[in-house]
Write a structure and sequence with these properties.
Methylamine Dehydrogenase, Chain H
Amino acid sequence: MPQIFVSSGRVILVIFLVGILFISLYVTVIRFSNAQQTQDGIDDKLVSYEKKSNFIKEFHVPIEERGLRGITTDSQGNAWFLHSTNETSTIVKLEPDSGKFTQYPEEGETIADNPVINLAAGQLVFDKERNAVWFTDARVNSIGKLDIASGQIKLWQVPTKNAGPMGIVLSPEGKSLWFAEIIGNNIARFDIQSEKIVEYQTGENSGPTLLTFDEKGQLWVSLAFSDSVMLTQIGNLSSNSSVGMVKMSLPKPDRFAPFGIAIAGGKLYVSDHGSSRMIVADENSGLQSYDVYWTSSSSSPALIPTTLPGEVVVDKHGNIFFPQHGGNRISEIRQDDGLMTEYNIPTGPLSTVLFLTASDDGRVWFTEWASNKVAYLDTLVKVPFEL
């Protein structure tokens, strides 16, 4: 049964609220990376049960080795996700109605260092106009395109070595792609017609991670290592300066580890991957005033004491969704009334969910690294409760 939380003004009521523990994204992800590097010895405590859910359906991925990363969906409702290790990368398609998996292996050789590969989890975005899936892959230090009709994959190498390309979005006009380099400390533009990449520095040790466009065509970027987010006027950018970039942090002494980022209804949603909270602020506030959604306590406090909210996405109705990396849940914040609902992931106690995507058919897809599954939350199934 999902848990329901109601927002009232600036106060979020949460049952079983635990103490606040702030840790940096860097430490958190490095621990996660170490787990990936020693997959054969992974603690069985991470995945010890499978329960029934009326809201979430899971699929076992037919690849033995763990390596699930980002996920997206196409216009037919199929799920596309990246499976990547230190030696191989594969784009996988899942047709949910039949349960059929199709694998598209990449041919690129590993050129990045292992710590970079483990830290920078590749992401994907569907391009309806070109019927293609674009993606980032730190292992080959490249962005790539999978042509759905032919099944062919083409790679473009990032100019900066060991850049750790991660978040990727299609520009509003559909002529370019923007991606974040978490280790390279750049954001970059890929012009689809000319096939050229231009990088823009975001500052030393800033750690650009995920990004999104707002309705005005402005690019928002989470800077995981510098406790800030960045608003970017892409038309004013210069490759040799910080012109066109505005960085924002929470008022001191508050600090956070921004990870997921989304814009909906004039609000900025940023997940704090170093705690158990979601930051919500007016997009024009500069983060100087904000509300907080606290998730319920960690499902495995002995393993991870905080819930570590991950990627943030918006569905076609403006509702917000994010996974709890350490809480083993999917959270929804409704746009119309601010109500937050938490859905327990059937496999646990820690299936390790960090990335997700919302499709137009009412499904919110996500990857489970520790359990080696992909799954979707069916948002059309109504939660049986009354206020």
